[in-house]
Structure formats: C-alpha cells, structure tokens
Design brief:
single chain; alpha/beta; six-stranded mixed beta sheet; 26% helix; 16% strand
Length: 257
C-alpha cells in the first residue's frame, strides 16, 4: 500500500471498506479537517508520451469536475497536481534529499525518514497549508513559543473547526515499470484519488478500491463506489468539517461495490 506524506513547502508541484466504528482514530489521524484543494486544480503529467499524458490529464479533470472542483484553464495554468512517471521514484526522492535538502525542511524528521524509505512502485507528496475557515493564511508553527495566530469573528461550535487544511500542491510518483498492463483510465483514477486527498482510508477485505491498482492483477477498472463516495464527502459542504464527520458511515459503502 502507498503512504501519503504531507509537507508545507510551497511550490513543490512546480518542481517537478470498510472503516471501523471510530474511523478517524482507527486510521491514525486526529479530528482536524481533512485537507483538500480549494484553489482551481491544474493537473499535469511528466514522463509519458504527449498524447497519453493529455488523456490522463483530461481524465483527472473530468473526475475533478464530477466532484464539483473548480479547474483552471487547460491552456493557461501552472500545474499544482503533477503525476510523474519515473524510472525509479525512490531514487528521485533520494536525489532531491541530497541536492535540494531545503525542500524537506518543513517535514517532521520521522515523516522525512519514512518518505525516503518508502517501498513499492508509487508514492505521493502532498503540500498543505493551514488557513482560517475563510481562507486567511495562518502560517506554520516553528517552535513551542511563537505560535501562529489569526483573528476572526466566530461562534464556538462542536460541529465545525475554526481552521481548514488546504492542499496547495500534490505530486503522485509512479514507477514506469509498474504501469504495464494498466490502462490510462486506471492510472488517471489512481492519481485522482491520491492527488486530491492527503488521507485515503484503508478498505477491508472484499471492498474494491482503485488504491489496489498495484497490489493485484484484478484491480478495478477505475474509481469505485467506495472511492467516489469518499471523494464526494471530502469535497462536499464547507472545508472545516472534522475528519470523523467526513469518514462516518463509509463502511456502508462496501455493500454497493
């Protein structure tokens, strides 16, 4: 299975089922909002023949529009979601660590080690920023003394949080050797799931998901009911909804796959 790592390094992209009764806790996340794109989406592909790359981009755009995301003009935008097909994605990250170590400075050391040690043919690197519920930039905590602050009018609520988590850039790295036998639709849908969400819920045995694309020869042909239900929930309503609310009841989707 692929693991997603988050970073707050601005402009990264330019460089290159069941859930248990308490899903947010079981999946190892806290009850803060799940990150999602709020700015217009501009997908791009590198490392693939031009006409194939165009088909992947078109499919990602189609998926995004089905979810209600705003997309930037295809002929005039700077990619903030890149799908890169590489000879060796892990080697690429190792070289970045050696040659552009500053790109990893805002990551926790444990996250950086895990990212650089990640095995398998795929990996994703999501860049996020914490903002107020209205989109004002808050900044990143550098220490335990000078904490980032933002002022706004807000009523106390147990339903919503005062902040949201915005994805500012995403990279999905896929080793070229692993794509044999996979269709462009499958690859685009896999990138859609892992590029539009910083947290992808694990599924129980028997629950189909495109995240299984590189784990089995009988992978789904595209995004499944489980995948679409999760993404629809993630991108529905306001952005500052707690994770537990987004994930609640996903176990019921298993019967519709």
């Amino acid at each position: 299975m692929k693991t997603i790592f988050r970073s707050s390094i601005a402009g990264l992209a330019a460089l290159a089922a069941a859930i248990t009764a308490s899903p947010a806790v079981a999946d190892g996340i806290d009850d803060q909002p799940l990150a999602r794109f709020e700015e217009r989406l501009c997908p791009g592909v590198i490392g693939m023949q031009a006409d194939y790359a165009a088909a992947v981009v078109a499919r990602i755009r189609e998926n995004a529009e089905r979810l209600g995301l705003r997309t930037a003009p295809a002929d005039d935008c700077k990619a903030n979601m890149i799908v890169a097909f590489l000879g060796d994605g892990q080697d690429y990250l190792q070289r970045l660590s050696r040659e552009r170590g500053w790109m990893f400075e805002s990551m926790d050391e444990s996250e950086k080690r895990a990212l650089l040690a990640q095995t398998g043919p795929t990996r994703a690197w999501i860049t996020t920023e914490t903002r107020t519920r209205d989109g004002l930039w808050i900044g990143r905590r550098e220490n335990l003394v000078a904490l980032p602050q933002a002022a706004m009018w807000s009523a106390h609520s147990k339903i919503y949080t005062p902040t949201r988590e915005d994805i500012t850039a995403a990279m999905v790295l896929i080793d070229r050797d692993a794509i044999e036998g996979r269709s462009l639709t499958q690859l685009a849908d896999y990138a859609t799931l892992h590029g539009l969400a910083d947290h992808v819920p694990a599924t129980a045995d028997g629950v189909a998901s495109i995240q299984q694309l590189f784990d089995t020869e009988s992978a789904p042909e595209g995004l499944t009911a489980f995948d679409m239900t999760y993404l629809e929930r993630l991108y529905s309503a306001i952005p500052n909804v707690p994770a537990s609310t987004r994930l609640e009841g996903l176990e019921g989707v298993a019967s519709r796959n």
